[in-house]
Design goal:
The complex is a heterodimer. Chain A is mainly alpha-helical. Chain A is built from 14 helices and no strands. The chains are: A mainly alpha, B alpha+beta.
């Protein structure tokens, strides 16, 4: 059965985009930071949040090929649909990277040539000066293009290959399956490295005086959680509309388990990073948490509570993961929780005291991005049969039982 | 009428499952199933109640967490406060981040051990306990259904045996029960 975007979904997403853009425009007019940095940062936080959702999903999709997981075959197209946002997400992130390089905003302090100019007594920064072998614009762009290019190419290849497999049978189908397997192994290896590098380059270098060896993993944990939650919400939405008839409570329970498990992974990485920094209490490390826990205690605590305690307590029992309405409610709350996480990653570092809490700009861009993201993903759903036509594990997935 | 126990031996878990399904549909109550490994999906067929192991595990986890909270508070805050890295140690909440690894590990330790020990006691399979499986082959390559005439007053032993013969049974053994 092919998916068609309902009139209601089309209208709602369009309204979201319009409201979001109007809010962002109002926010832009009230933005008195230099270079309109607040607007850039709010745009960037949301661009990253939705890009990370697509990346986390693409990773999980490849992981399923590598582990030859059978039960996810029925919802394979949902992961693919979300992963089809990767090129668009890459584009939105690219806009911010280009603007930063051109000096249109100063989210990355090290991009300002004055910080490494020893003659400039006011702006010279000895710490940044030591990092120039890694943090310089040409090398930064080599990495950025390599990372974005790899992700976009793989996302498009996986999609095209999956559509090809729909038309195959027998030996050809099995051969395609192994090809998928090999490409996925390659992708996972590249992703393992690139997900950390992009976290250092695009996020950690905002707080350029601070570093954390665990940061890449922490960002990756957030990506994965975002992907699992979004896939959960979309599967429940599609099921509610009467699509995906073969997906039953067993599949939902396993998807719920992933939301539960990955929430723990994220919490573990977040807390581990915090614990080590808190314990050693070195000023150059703890400055990161001073700008978050001390300056925005509500944001940090609410974010951590939603992303850790809520899934732990609400998704622990078997029944909770088999009830679509309950799952949807919990997933929507954690979705917001991970958005708060991305906001607290970007905003305090890039704005310092100018960031006084979540305002009209963050929410405006969130709504606009949500509308665009949903439209792109739903359009990808509509382009191909929502359940794969042919896959070696399709039968096993239909009979999935736990 | 003497109570009889009937053991139906199968060579494959799938054959056993379909046989059990047939028997239960005919209104025969299955007492138990013995197998070398857990048979996926047998529980609802023979009408086993859903396991409460998850609740046990949760309760042991809460117990472990409470004990660890009490322990860390008593050792590191109340009885012998120590200055470690200049960390404030007058109040528990100021130090709780340092205790989280202990709290977490002890919760997991208690939940896992409590669950495993409960499981062994409930199944009467603690080390040294006598084996209760009727046939040693059920720990190797045979799958056995146990039926009792005491559970099935509507059927005779002959009737049940007749039904079993229609399935892909490997062998049928009968024993007197409690004689």
């Amino acid at each position: 059965m092919n998916f068609t975007i309902s009139k209601r979904a089309s209208t709602i997403t369009l309204v979201l985009i319009v409201i979001g853009l109007v809010m962002a425009a109002i926010g832009l007019m009230g933005d008195h930071t230099g270079h309109k940095q607040y607007t850039w940062a709010a745009f960037y936080a949301n661009a990253l949040f939705f890009f990370f959702i697509a990346l986390g999903t693409l990773f999980f999709y490849a992981l399923n090929h590598v582990t030859e997981t059978a039960w996810t075959v029925l919802v394979k197209r949902v992961y693919e649909g979300i992963a089809m946002y990767v090129p668009w997400g890459a584009l939105t992130v690219l806009v911010v990277l280009v603007a930063g390089t051109m000096g249109l905003h100063h989210m990355w302090p090290w991009m300002d040539a004055r910080t490494v100019d020893a003659a400039d007594a006011v702006h010279f920064d000895g710490h940044i000066n030591k990092l120039t072998s890694y943090l310089n614009k040409p090398f930064f762009w080599v990495r950025a293009i390599l990372i974005l290019g790899t992700f976009v190419l793989f996302a498009r290849w996986f999609r095209a290959h999956s559509l090809r497999m729909d038309k195959e049978t027998g030996e050809a189908l099995v051969a395609s399956h192994w090809k998928n397997y090999r490409r996925s192994v390659l992708f996972i290896v590249l992703f393992a490295f690139f997900s950390s590098v992009l976290a250092w380059d695009w996020i950690m270098s905002i707080d350029v005086h601070w570093k954390s060896a665990l940061f890449g993993w922490y960002v990756f944990g957030g990506m994965w959680a975002g992907g699992m939650i979004t896939a959960m919400i979309l599967v429940l939405y599609l099921k509610g509309k009467g699509y995906l008839p073969q997906v039953n409570a067993n599949h939902l329970q396993d998807m719920g388990k992933w939301v539960f498990a990955v929430s723990f992974l994220w919490s573990y990485l977040y807390f581990e990073q915090y614990l080590l920094i808190w314990y050693s209490n070195i000023p150059e490390e703890s400055s990161y948490y001073v700008a978050r826990l001390n300056d925005h205690p509500w944001l940090t605590w609410v974010m951590f509570f939603i992303n850790f305690a809520l899934p732990m307590l609400l998704l622990m029992s078997r029944d909770s993961k088999r009830s679509p309405k309950y799952l949807l409610g919990v997933s929507l709350i954690i979705f917001i929780g991970h958005w708060l996480d991305t906001v607290q990653m970007i905003m305090p570092g890039s704005l310092g005291p100018h960031f006084t809490g979540i305002g009209i700009l963050e929410v405006g861009f969130f709504l606009a991005f949500l509308g665009v993201f949903t439209r792109i993903v739903l359009a990808a759903f509509a382009k191909a049969p929502l359940t794969v036509v042919a896959h070696p594990f399709l039968e096993e997935s239909v009979h999935h039982h736990i | 009428m003497a109570n009889k126990v009937i053991y139906a031996v199968y060579e494959d878990p799938e054959l056993l499952k379909s046989a059990a399904r047939k028997l239960v549909t005919a209104g025969v109550q299955v007492r138990d199933v013995f197998s070398p490994f857990p048979i996926h999906g047998i529980d609802p067929i023979i009408g086993l109640k859903r396991t409460r192991m998850g609740i046990v595990s949760f309760m042991f986890g809460i117990f472990g967490l409470s004990l660890a909270l009490l322990g860390t508070w008593w050792m590191a805050i109340y009885d012998w406060p120590m200055n470690i890295g200049g960390k404030p140690n007058q109040f528990f909440y100021q130090n709780v981040a340092a205790f989280v690894p202990v709290l977490f590990e002890f919760t997991v330790l208690c939940a896992a051990h409590g669950m495993a020990i409960t499981y062994l006691i409930r199944n009467k399979t603690l080390p040294g306990m006598p084996a209760r499986n009727p046939d040693p082959r059920s720990t190797n390559d045979k799958f056995i259904i146990e039926l009792r005439t005491a559970d099935n007053h509507a059927h005779t032993a002959e009737g049940i045996t007749g039904m079993l013969r229609e399935t892909d049974v490997f062998e049928i053994n009968e024993r007197q029960f409690g004689a």
